[in-house]
Amino acid sequence: MTIGRRVVFAVVLLASLVGASAQGFGQAAGKQPTKTKRPKGADKIQRDTTPYKPTILFNSTEPLEFTLTLNVKQIKKDRGDEPPSRPATFALKDTSGKPVDMPIHVRTRGIWRKKNCDIPPLRIDFTKDKVKGTVFAGQNHVKLAIPCRFNDRYEQLTLAEFNLNRAYTVLTPLSHRVRLARLTLVDSASGKPEFTRWSFVMEDESEVAGRNHGRVYDVKGATSSDLDPSTAAIAGLFQYMIGNTDYSVQALHNVELMARDTSVYPIIFDFDFAGAVNAPYAVVDYRLSIKRVTDRLFRGPCAPASYYPAAIAHFKAKRDSITALYSDALGKLMDPGKVKETLEYFDDFYKIVDDSRRVKREMLDACPGLS
Description:
The protein is α+β, with helices and mostly antiparallel strands and 371 residues long. It has helices spanning 3-19, 72-76, 112-116, 128-131, 152-171, 205-211, 229-242, 308-317, 319-324, 336-353, 356-362, and strands spanning 64-70, 86-93, 99-108, 122-125, 141-145, 178-187, 193-202, 215-216, 255-260, 263-268. It folds into two domains: 36-47 and 214-366, no CATH class; 64-206, no CATH class. Helices cover 30% and strands 18% of the residues. The strands form two sheets. The chain has a seven-stranded mixed β-barrel with strand order 1-2-3-4-5-7-6. Strands 8-9-10 form a three-stranded antiparallel β-sheet. α7 packs across α8.
């Protein structure tokens, strides 16, 4: 980020935090304004100001089971940047076991998958009074990840991405919780099921921020030096661990920001292009120095070098807990060969972080200007 843009970002953050003092935010020390123009999306810091109320959706790891009925032909056409919201029906059992059918709206999401998958990932929008008495009570909307193709291979890729999300929640609460779901997708036009496959729902960013006592900070232009260094170190190491380069803090591509007190925290998500998933459609940006998604490249977000010993120690302390995810009831849904491949990929990461010279050469030296 140029100096001018950095000043703008710092000023917007300062103004937002001061304005939020009634919610416990303190005034930040920052640069004085040199411009009055607010970055795109800066006004959204004011959303989600109501006190956080815990919900129950992610309190259990028991897989959900529900049926989503929508117009398949119609939803397949929604490939543009601003897809419309489509009516659909959501069927599940309430907390007492009684069947419930509720009207919802869905819209396609994602970038590559929106343009290339049989049906892209979806955002499900609920009506609050309709979800009362169900596991979705209190949810305004959730993201739904579904297999890109309606076959076993792509279902396994979805399970692999699901487990990467679980691994990140082991490392930090500044992450999206996920819950597995046995999804039946029905075409409303024909009344026939398209598939029944493993999918997963992902926690909304406002709930991630709320349970971490912060607010969504939807402002583009941040760089590593704008972020809380401890969280930045963990996020960058995890992206390196799973071999993911498909993200950008500045562009808010597969990254969200949360503001709390006088700090900004990165929250990373969408790991389907990671080397640990190794999806057949995943490619590396041609501008990067690696050729395959399984090749590791440290892209941050960066933190001062002094933060990495503690971050690496944290990853080592959580290693057994992460490994255990691949042998529990949910992890066993993955193909044993893919589990072995994934854990060996993680082993390579731990060999790297055990070597201080490689850490410096392959990670710290990729973060110029931070010491």
